[in-house]
Each structure stands twice: as structure tokens, then as C-alpha cells.
Here is the input.
Amino acid sequence: MTTTTASAQPGERTVGKSSPGTARGPRRRPGRIRRLGLPYLLLLPALLLELLVHLVPMVIGIVMSFKELTQFYIRDWTTAPWTGLDNFTMSVDFDAPVGEALLHSFLVTCAFTVLSVGLCWLIGTAAAICMQDTFRGRGLLRAIFLVPYALPVYAAVITWAFMFQHDNGLVNHVLHDQLGLTDKPSFWLIGDNSFVALLVVSVWKGWPFAFLIVMAGLQNIPRELYEAAALDGAGVWQQIRRITLPSLRPVNQVLVLVLFLWTFNDFNTPFVLFGKAAPEAADLISIHIYQSSFVTWNFGTGSAMSVLLLLFLLLVTGVYLLLTSRATRAPRTPRKHEERRTADA
Here is the structure.
């Protein structure tokens, strides 16, 4: 079929072929759908693994916390009788032996977490600030500082367990035999000293992570700020307090939260260092829940403790994020206005 169209000059015709789909626009919708669906397709394997590894066991653990699941029902845990909130009531009854032991473990874990996170942040920040200046061997020192973080946890903790041995350990050899700081060799893996031993191992393997994160954050601070502060007569401590720490506030907010969650939930360090039965002074809540579940075979009570721990961590994380976000968004009054208000008052 041919069509004739009138040209600009009379008597001339233009002959062209027309197809049924000439008037239709290009089909872009399928390609757009593919582009929009590609990110979700790429995320699908990670979402499935997250569902299988974390969410499904979490839901099963919550269901188990409402059951009287003991060693008599391990063969088929679904047949365990439903107890409702009895496991939770028993766990928070601090006058009973179960609740009293859980409270003691919780307090020990809080003290251990505060000290470990604080020391990790302090040592990591100090080391990162010292490594900012250029000097010979800086790269080697940075690599050496990251060795505890790069080592596998089990290998590092087992090494420390040998060093803390009473008779032939390196710690007692240095403190007692070489330096003479103690009257007799100390027991580091039992008794009250076990808390110190656990804290030392935790800080030793945790501060390089803080060092790495703070060192990365320091790269974003312009050197011109320090040069201007030095010209104004500011010392090293004033530069750290006025420039370094305020600039690192967003980095430190994330760093402290991550260190808190890792330390509070740490299971590998006390388990490898002390075994299944940790000393009372180093009875972290992770080991306590493990003992309640896999040593006494009371999975219902252990699951209830795990749910309570999860709720506590969610609460602390939510409050921490709320407070830090408010502090970040809070407007600051310039110093000149503050001085004027003080003078007027």
C-alpha cells in the first residue's frame, strides 16, 4: 500500500511505505522494569541467606522461650508443653537462684563492656593520632598494630590462655620472675583475676579495630586547620580537643555502638579462654546463657534469657541513636552571641 503526500511545490509527490506500527512509540516499559528489578534480583541471595541464618532461628528461639523445653523434649521440641511467660518470670525473679545468677552475669557483662569499649577507643584513638605524622617506619608500625585484629580469634585467645598459665605462663614469668611485681605466681584463669585476664584479651584484640576506623576518619580532616591553629598558638592538646575530637564525632558515634554490640555479645573470647564453665568473676551473659541452654539442658529458660538480652540491646541501641541524632541536629549558639548574653546579664 502506497501513500502520496503533497510536497511544498505543486505537482510533486512523495511516495513512501507505511507499516502498521509506524505510529506507535518505542516500548521502554519492559527495559525499565528490568532495570528496576535488577537490584532486587542481585539482593535476593543475601536476603535468602539472612532469612535462613538469622531470622528463622530467631523466630524459633522466640517460640522456644514460651515452652518448657528440657532434655526430655529434645527429640521433638514441638511436643514440649506451653508455659507462657513462666520462663521470663523465672529469669527476672532476682530473689530466686536463676534470676540472681542472671543479674550477677548481667552486671559483670556491663562492667566488662564499659571498660573494654572505653579502653579500646582510648588506645585506638591515641595510636591513630600518633600515626598521623609522617616518619620513617610509619607503614610498618601501622601493619604491626593491625596484627591482633587480623589474627583468628581462636588462635589469639588460645595463645593468651597459654600465656596466662599459672606454672609456665609468660605473664607470671615476666611479672613474678623477671620484674618481681608479685609475691607469688597468680592464677589468671580462675578466681577474681579472671576478669582482668578477660579484659586484657578483649582490649588486645579490639583496639586495632578502633585504630583502623579512627585512622580512616582522620584522613578527612584538612591539614590547614591544624596549621592555622598552630599559627594561632594552639598546642597539641588544644588541637586535639578543638579540631580532632569534634571532627571525629560522627565516626566515634558509629564506632562506640559497634564496639558495644560486639563486646556485650562476645562469646568466643570467654569460651576459648575459660571453657564451658567460666569463673564467677568473668561470667559474661553469653556464657551464662550457653550454660543454661547446653549444660543444664533447659532450652526454654535459655531462650527466654536470649530474648531478654535481645530486647535490652535493641532498647540501648534505640536510645543511643536517638540521643546521638539529637546532639547532631541540635543548633549551636555562636560564641559571640553567648558572650553578649553573658555581658548583658
Observations:
- The chain has a mean pLDDT of 84.
- The radius of gyration is 32 Å.
- The chain has 15 helices and two strands.
- The longest strand covers residues 2-6.
